[in-house]
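hiii, so i know i said id send this last week but things got crazy w the move. better late than never?? heres the sequnce for the chain we talked about at the cafe, plus the structure i predicted for it. fair warning i was half asleep when i ran it
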Amino acid sequence: MFLVSGALKVVDPAQTRIAVRAYELLPPDLVGPVATALPLLELVLGTLLLVGAFTRWVAFAAAVLLVILMSAVAQAWARGLSIDCGCFGGGGAVAKGDTRYPQELARDVGTWLLALWLVVRPRTALSVDGWLRADPGAQWRAAGNPVN
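okay and structure toks below
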């Protein structure tokens, strides 16, 4: 999800700035830097999660980012702003009936729960973390072979 979201934003930086500005949270001088940094952060987090590197820390950072993004969506909804979240590109003002705040928040809560799962259980045999923590002699010893 982070890879797709980041890629769609990074290819259209002008639209990403429009989406960030639509939340009406940041001073104008911060809109550009946030609109540039957010997709790059998503791409880094997505890549590290995909390969399973530094999984616990990256999942924690993803969970924190998701809380920030969910808070932004919730405040827009609470303030009566009619915007598209811009989560997967696009974003900005939409007609009053075209908002999808409940769906956006539900999706983000689900992703947040997955991030928390990775904080608790960060390693698999296919992850970089799993390879780095693997005990190459474990299978040898489990087969009853002596350790030299």
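btw The longest helix spans residues 28-51. thought thatd interest u
miss u guys!!
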